[in-house]
Amino acid sequence: MFAAVDLGSNSFRLHIGSFDGSAIRVMKSARDPIRLGAGLDAQGNLTPEAIERALACLSRFKELLDSYKDIEVRCVATNTIRIAKNAAAFLPRAEAALGRPIEVISGEEEGRLIYMGVSNTLAIPAERRLVIDIGGGSTEIILGRGHEIAKVESFGMGTVKHSSAFFPDGVITAAGFDAAVVSVRSLLEDATPAFQPEYWRNAYGSSGTVRAISDALLKNGFGDAEVSLPKLLALRDYCINKGRIDALNLAGIKPERVAMVIGGLSILIGLFQELNITVLHPIEAGLRMGVMWDLHLRSTKRDRRDQAVHDFLDVFRADVIRAKSVAEIAKSIFEQLKPSNEQLTRYVYWSALMHEVGMTVSHTGYHKHGSYLVENGDIAGFTTREQKLMSRLVLSQKGNLRKLGESLSDSDIAKAVLSLRLAVTFMHSRIELDFADFRLRMKNKIELEIKQSWVNLHPTVAYWLQKEIECWREIGVEFVVKAYA
C-alpha cells in the first residue's frame, strides 16, 4: 500500500491506495482546507494561526496513516512552504505532528510528479500531450509523450495570489479580470513557444482548480465538462455581472472555494490565450497519484532517480566510464563495511557516479564545484535532503575531512565517505580491484589488509594511502594498513 500526503497552498490532502496489477486504486482520501497560502503575513512568514491549523491537520493524518500496516508514505510540500521565510522553523514541528519526513519539492519536481500521475492514469503510450496544473501558489505546465517528459516549467502564479491581488475584498470587475489575465500572459510569454499546439495532440487539466471550473461550467448551464475559451469567457462575464465573490452561487462549488475558482479562472483564461489551447480535458489525477506511482516504481526497482543521475552526467559531460568504475568500487567497499543502514548504499553509488561533474567548471577544486552542482541542480526524483547528502559525499571525495564537521559522527556516513575516497584513489591509480586481495573494517579505527603482491604491482597506491591515513588522523581516527603474504 502507498500513501501520498500533499501539503498544498490551499489544502492539505491525503491519498491511500494500492496497486491492483494495472493501476493504483485510491482506497481512502482526506482533505483539509488549511489555506496555508493565505496564511502568509506581510513579511512572508506563516502566521501562528496557519501553523496551528496545519499541525492539527497533520496530527489527524498521522492517526489515519498509523491505522495501516506495511504502508509506504511520502509527504511533499509545495509552493507556500517553498517560499515561506519561517519554513525551516515550521518543518520540524510539522514532521513531528505527522510522524514522518516532509519533502519540500521544487516546482519542476512537482510538475514531473503531476505528469507521472496523469500519464499512468491515461495509459496512452504514444500520445503527445500538454498537462496544466493550477495550484494555490504555483502553476505547472508539462509537455510530454506517453510516460516521457519533454519539458517542465513552474510559474509562481496560483489561485490564492490571483484572487487576493486582482479581486481585493471580493470585488469582481472587468478591469480586475483583464489585469489578472495580462499578468498571466506576461509571466508566460518567454516560455510559450515551447508549449504551442504543434508539440501536442491533447491538453489535460489535472488540478482541483481545473476540475472545479469544469464542474461550474457543467452544472451552471455553460455547456458540458470540457473546458474551452468561449465557456471560460462566458463564466467570467457571469462573475463580473454578479460583482462580488460572496454574491456568486455556483452549483457544484463549495462557498469557501469560490474565491479560489475566480483566481483560477483568470489564470486559465490567460493560459488558453497564450498557449492557443482549444479544449482542455479535466482529469482526476495529478500530484498525489504521481507520488504513489513513484513509490510503486521504486518498490519494483524502476527508480526514476537512476535515469535522472545519468541525465545529470550527460548535462555536465562527465566521463561515464570513469564514473561507473568509481561507483562500482565505492558500492563494493561500502557493502564490505556492513553499514547498519543499507538504504545508504544507493546514495553512495549515485554520489560516486556524479563525483566528477564539477570538472565542467574547473579541474581545480572540482569536488567543491561538483558538490554545489549536486546540491543545487535539478535532479528529478531527489529530495532536497537527498541532494544535500550526495553533495556532502561528493565534497568528501578528496582533501581534508575537517570540512565535514559533525557529519562523520554518524558511523554509516563515515563509512560512505571512506568508501568513496578509497574508490577515487584506486581509480586514479588505475587499479582494478580484486576484493580477494582486500579486507576493510571500520569500527573504532579503520583497518585495511591488502596482499603484499598487490602493493608491489601498484607502487603509487602506497603514497595515496599514506595521505589518506594522515587525513583521518587529523580528525582523530586511526587508519592502519597491513600487508600480508
Automatic annotation (TrEMBL):
Q: Which portions of this protein are annotated as coiled-coil regions? A: none
In terms of Gene3D superfamilies, this protein maps to: 3.30.420.40, Exopolyphosphatase. Domain 2, Hypothetical protein af1432
Q: Does the keyword tRNA processing apply?
A: no
**Which residue numbers delimit the Ppx/GppA phosphatase C-terminal domain?**
305-468
SUPFAM superfamilies for the chain: Actin-like ATPase domain, HD-domain/PDEase-like
InterPro entries xrefs: ATPase_NBD (IPR043129), GppA/Ppx_hydrolase (IPR050273), Ppx_GppA_C (IPR048950), Ppx_GppA_N (IPR003695), PyroPPase_GppA_Ppx (IPR030673)
Task: List, for all copies, the residue spans of the domain called Ppx/GppA phosphatase N-terminal.
Answer: 22-297
GO terms, molecular function = pyrophosphatase activity
Q: Which UniProt keywords apply?
A: Hydrolase
Q: Which PANTHER family match?
A: EXOPOLYPHOSPHATASE, RETROGRADE REGULATION PROTEIN 2
Q: What is this protein called?
A: Ppx/GppA family phosphatase
